[in-house]
């Protein structure tokens, strides 16, 4: 289920805690400012937040946005943050793979890009045919 901007605002404390726990280490900004920018982007609709709910319990949260490469002008769906509140069955990953591929195609995207340091996530997307040969590389400056 994709949250509306008002839905994001209503559960921001839970969303922000999950995002902070799963962010890639790219920002040197103070957490408050980083989270302010993320909330502003989500509230504007430039990025989306999806929840997977079982019964009345959220079990997975995904934040994603469309990015246009500055050089090639290729459009890609970037999964910015994935946070699982509990073990996620393979069947849910398979369903989400299909849904996000459809959404990416509908938005004119060439690929879905994501980062993860969680072995289970890397393993499952590898089984789903994703290219997992690249590594995220960074250093402080």
* pLDDT < 50 stretches: none
Helical segment count: 5
Question: Based on the structure given, which CATH architecture is correct?
Answer: 3-Layer(aba) Sandwich
Could you tell me the radius of gyration in angstroms?
15 Å
Description:
By secondary structure, the protein is α+β, with helices and mostly antiparallel strands. The chain has one domain: Gcn5-related N-acetyltransferase (GNAT) (Aminopeptidase, 3-Layer(aba) Sandwich), CATH 3.40.630.30. It contains 5 helices and 4 strands. Strands 1-2-3-4 form a 4-stranded mixed β-sheet.
Brief rundown of the structure:
This protein has five helices and four strands. It has helices spanning about 5-10, 10-20, 30-45, 90-105, 120-125, and strands spanning about 45-55, 55-70, 75-85, 110-115.
How would the blueprint of this fold be written?
Layout lengths: L4 H6 L1 H11 L8 H14 L2 E8 L2 E12 L6 E10 L5 H17 L4 E4 L4 H9 L14
Parallel strand pairs: 3-4
Antiparallel strand pairs: 1-2, 2-3
Characteristics:
141 residues, alpha+beta, Aminopeptidase, 4-stranded mixed β-sheet, 5 helices
């Amino acid at each position: 289920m994709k949250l509306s901007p008002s839905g994001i605002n209503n559960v921001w404390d839970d969303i922000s805690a999950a995002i902070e726990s799963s962010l890639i280490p790219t920002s040197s900004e103070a957490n408050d400012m980083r989270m302010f920018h993320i909330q502003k982007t989500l509230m504007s609709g430039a990025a989306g937040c999806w929840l997977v709910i079982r019964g009345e319990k959220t079990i997975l949260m995904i934040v994603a946005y469309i990015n246009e490469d500055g050089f090639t002008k290729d459009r890609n769906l970037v999964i910015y943050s994935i946070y699982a509140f509990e073990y996620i069955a393979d069947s849910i990953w398979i369903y989400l793979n299909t849904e996000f591929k459809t959404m990416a195609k509908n938005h004119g995207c060439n690929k879905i890009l994501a980062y993860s340091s969680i072995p289970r996530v890397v393993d499952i997307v590898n089984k789903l045919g994703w290219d997992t040969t690249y590594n995220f590389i960074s250093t402080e400056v």
